[in-house]
Amino acid sequence: MRAFPVAAFAALQEAGLLVATLPAALGGGGLGTHDRVPLLRRLGRLSLPVARLYEGHVNALDLVLRFGTPEQRQRAASDAQAGELFGVWNTEEAPGVRLPHNSEGSGGVLSGHKTFASGAGHVTRALCPAETDAGRVMVLLPGAPAPERFDPSFWQPAGMRATVSERVDLGGLRVGVKDIIGQPGDYYRQPDFSGGALRFLAAQLGGADAVLDAARATLQRLGRQHDDVQRLRFAEVAARLEGAWQTVLRAQRQLDTAQGSDLERSLAYVSIARVLTEDACLLACEAAERAVGARGLLPPAPTERLLRDLRLYLRHLRPTRRASTWAASC
């Protein structure tokens, strides 16, 4: 059974967060990149699956705003204002999703599947990169795929179940020229492609906050919150999380101002943030597990579910080799 957080996204819509990152000229809140990372950390602390899905919504809207035509940008803004949920479905199995060449320039018919299609059955505006003869383009699906196109058996994870990241068959879907966003290769343009990692790093740090909150609550219930060993353990984790967080914030500031030769160094610093965040979050998981013991890891204990969510989300993407570029330039 799908466990998508419907109520949470209704609340996000009511709070105006589905349009918060749109410019004011398009009816949005104009929330800039540096203000998004604290928001994503707060959401991650409340619900890591919600933060993951919201990050995809923000990413898809950003791509349309950056590379779309004025008409496409306006349509996306209107859809977001109406409560449509956006997402990015990029992961796929070989041979991947293709959009064959159409000599009449009227779009075409998709073939292939996407995997990890987060928000399956609920994301109504999915941005799906597809291979063409000219290169990889972004296709914004004009509506939600029919329910029978999804394969729920694909998504049987240890954690993050509420993201409902199923396999989807896009074969036979017809798309028009108005549904193709930007030019071939735009999806991978830097610095936004690699720099976008800062969004999910913020969410992961929020997930670590939630894990520690749950572990502390367990210790308080057991009357062990004043144990010196526990205090030292949690103090070390807090220091590591704060170090990772400050690195994420600095990385975002650098990306926002980087130009020319500074760009590669700024992207390398993003990789540093990825390494520090993963290490800090894994340390938080270990500290929580040791603190609550076996009893605290049995369902329905909150710590058990939160740990599963965070550990799975930490495997979202592997850090790149760019960190060595930054270190070599120091």
From TrEMBL:
GO terms for molecular function: acyl-CoA dehydrogenase activity; flavin adenine dinucleotide binding. Residues 198-313 form the Acyl-CoA dehydrogenase/oxidase C-terminal domain. The keyword Plastid does not apply. GO terms for biological process: fatty acid beta-oxidation using acyl-CoA dehydrogenase. Transmembrane segments: none annotated. Its cofactor is FAD. GO terms for cellular component: cytoplasm. Residues 3-83 form the Acyl-CoA dehydrogenase/oxidase N-terminal domain. Belongs to the acyl-CoA dehydrogenase family. This is Acyl-CoA dehydrogenase, putative. It comes from Deinococcus radiodurans (strain ATCC 13939 / DSM 20539 / JCM 16871 / CCUG 27074 / LMG 4051 / NBRC 15346 / NCIMB 9279 / VKM B-1422 / R1).
